[in-house]
Design a protein that fits this description.
Elements: E1 3-6, E2 15-19, E3 24-29, H1 32-47, E4 57-58, E5 76-77, E6 80-81, E7 86-87, E8 92-93, E9 107-108, H2 112-128, H3 134-144, E10 149-150, H4 151-164, H5 183-190, H6 193-204, E11 208-212, E12 215-220, H7 223-232
């Protein structure tokens, strides 16, 4: 996405919504939740709202269990829902809400190329003070440090790279272009770069099985199928 939430913009003491290509300040907020809500609104205004389930509603609705909302859902990340592949509001809710601690047991080790690229992203972020969200910075630290990543994180990586592929078309993404490295290029590096994209997609497309009562049964085929199967349950 061409817009991001950052906490270190020189003209904002709180959480800023910026335009990635030039670091333009779109809005300044006291809380990250408020910034993410504006980020959602900006993306909807520019790219249109993608289809959400009919039961997507304010978390304050009487039939919503107390304490549940998009912001603390397993599928939520910086104003984006990886289940519905759409921007959502932090204070909303749908019936497919899942606790954030419902992480899968599988974990995978980043490659050396991913670690090098993530460290490059961290170095750029430190040098230029821009590019990537707080989540991206945390992901970069995990990858650069060689931390094993659970399957849910791998799926988030697949989603990230799919959404940000368009950033490659912006000026400053490639060496020799004005503004290199662009905010989008820095963010891309934080998530492991091209090496991370290939790695995550390869894992997501592998057939995986699990043992249950000593009988192996197919669990899922791809990350996309996981989301499709969940959507069918609505």
């Amino acid at each position: 996405m061409p817009y991001s939430v950052v906490s270190n913009h020189p003209d904002c003491e709180g959480f800023a919504v910026i335009k990635d290509e030039n670091n333009e300040l779109i809005g300044c907020h006291k809380t990250q939740a408020q910034a993410e809500d504006q980020l959602t609104a900006v993306n909807i205004a520019e790219f249109g709202k993608r289809e959400l389930p009919e039961n997507y509603r304010p978390a304050s609705s009487e039939d919503v269990p107390e304490g549940r909302n998009c912001a603390n859902c397993y599928f939520y990340q910086a104003g984006y829902c990886s289940l519905w592949e759409a921007n959502v509001q932090a204070d909303y809710y749908c019936n497919r809400w899942a606790a954030q601690n419902e992480a899968r047991a599988e974990s995978f080790t980043p490659t050396a190329a991913m670690r090098t690229e993530a460290q490059r992203g961290l170095d750029w972020r430190r040098e230029f003070g821009r590019g990537g969200t707080e989540i991206g910075i945390a992901r970069g630290r995990d990858i650069a440090g060689g931390k094993d990543l659970p399957l849910d994180t791998v799926n988030r990586m697949v989603s990230f790279f799919a959404r940000h592929e368009v950033d490659k078309q912006a000026e400053g993404f490639s060496p020799g272009e004005d503004g290199y490295p662009s905010n989008g290029r820095i963010a891309w590096a934080l998530w492991g770069g091209d090496a991370g994209k290939s790695w995550a997609e390869n894992i997501a497309n592998q057939d995986r099985d699990y043992d249950k009562d000593k009988n192996k049964k197919p669990r899922y085929n791809t990350a996309v199928q996981i989301l499709q199967n969940l959507k069918k349950q609505i």
